[in-house]
Design goal:
alpha+beta; TATA-Binding Protein; 5-stranded antiparallel β-sheet; two-stranded antiparallel ribbon
């Protein structure tokens, strides 16, 4: 009896295994906030906006800003999939907030697991992107 598995245990184990492996959605993190040295004050900065635009382009996001608005809008598109986030920064923090998505299985508090991957890539690239002045001198080195 010690080395024999009961059929009920095997079925439950397989259902658990396939439930975890086949899962395509994860809990949606409505926002991600990280320390960001380039965000010194509370107002948007053209140099920081430009660094965020460059970072977004490098990882497949289109970043747009509206004069007078407090945040930037970033859109990621692949074939029939889309994610839209709002990017705000200030007081030493960078915040990326979920706005909408299309074909990413968003339902209630769940979303496709790739959403976290593409937002994580955006955050990582923003943190690595140097903030420069209009002639290319580094104002804030990456990762500081």
């Amino acid at each position: 009896m010690g080395g024999i598995l009961r059929p009920g245990i095997v079925v439950v184990g397989l259902v658990s295994l396939f439930g975890v492996v086949g899962c395509r959605t994860i809990p949606l993190r409505e926002s991600v906030e990280v320390p960001y040295a380039a965000a010194e004050g509370s107002a948007r900065s053209p140099a920081v906006d430009e660094a965020i635009w460059r970072a977004g382009r490098k990882v497949g996001w289109t970043v747009e800003g509206v004069a007078g608005a407090d945040d930037l809008t970033a859109t990621w598109r692949r074939t029939h999939h889309e994610a839209v986030v709002a990017i705000t920064y200030g007081e030493g923090r960078l915040r990326i907030r979920y706005v909408s998505s299309r074909n990413l299985l968003h339902e209630g508090s769940e979303i496709h697991r790739n959403y976290d991957r593409v937002v994580g890539a955006l955050v990582d690239q923003i943190l690595r992107e140097p903030v420069t002045d209009p002639i290319g001198r580094t104002l804030v080195p990456p990762g500081t």
